Amino acid sequence: MKRIFAQAVKELTQLGRDRLTLALALVLPLILLLLFGFAVSLKVNKINFAIQDLDLTPMSREYIATFERTNKFNILASGPEVNVPRLLDQGTVAAGLIIPPKFSRDLKRNGRAAEVQILVDGTDANTANIVRAYANATTSAFVASLRESGHTPVSLQSRLWYNPGLESLKYIGPGAVAITVTLFPTLLAGLATAKEYEQGTILQVYASSLTGTEYLLGKAAAFWLVGMAEVLFVNIEAWLFFGLRFVGDSTPMILSSMLYIACCVFWGIFLGSNTKIQSAAIQAVAFTAFLLSLQLSGFIYPIANIPVGICWISNIIPARYYIELTRDAYARGMGWLGVWFQVFALALLASFFCFLAWRKLQKMQLGS
Question: The domain containing residue 92 runs over which residues?
């Protein structure tokens, strides 16, 4: 019993001497509690919505007003010129309502239901089902008001875009591919860099003729190749075991994978050169590269549901953009037209992380 107590005291003493590890051990659980408490939400509100009104009658306007009175829909466009399929292709809206030209006339005919159509982006099966339920509930409220005046009910016909079968795998699978390749390239690069500082072998590098830039690029290239091999194996596994297939142009996916792994590797080197201790590097990588990517990338929970106070963090998380790219490659198939911005964002983040790592190594080599 005394030996167990002595070992516990020794471990606590060592942890107290390592202030960085102690700070991470104490602060990270608090931050994670905030993330789980405030960032996680399964509610779907303020759905981006478009309405194409081809009837342009007081009755159709009243039907549109019923959607406007709810707090579930954020109507971005309304009118006869609205092209709902195009807005869905662009990712501007999550659903759209099409009111046919004879909507009002059919309502006034007894015994005949007026048909309208709602197009829903089925990439996210859970959100698609919720959107469809909200639309049905809103239509039911409109129908209830019509029955009081003796009009014929409305028949709402739904059509799901991109994922007609509402297969959850087409939403979870591509996101899981992105999350899977997030941790290990960052962790390996961070551990390798921290190990050199921890063991003092980094001094040999500084004493050699190798410049900081050469050291950074050489180390990054090695772990980038490892990361790309991981991307290849993960996608092969997704094809073989989950039946995921590319549904459009695969070049954005290939280029974005190269940029995404570069982001992970440069970030890992930056963390390793700052922590300089392998245990601290592991914790820093686990939090910044994995947990933030899991919670704030849109993998499970829509980014729009995250509170504004911390939602901005998702803009600097590479996994956010890479998940959008993988879902486009496996579910939407829009290609460069729909994901060019995500590729550009990954290129900017890779350049920024490379600059951070290079600047840190340059300072260390100069002894500052």
Answer: 47-161
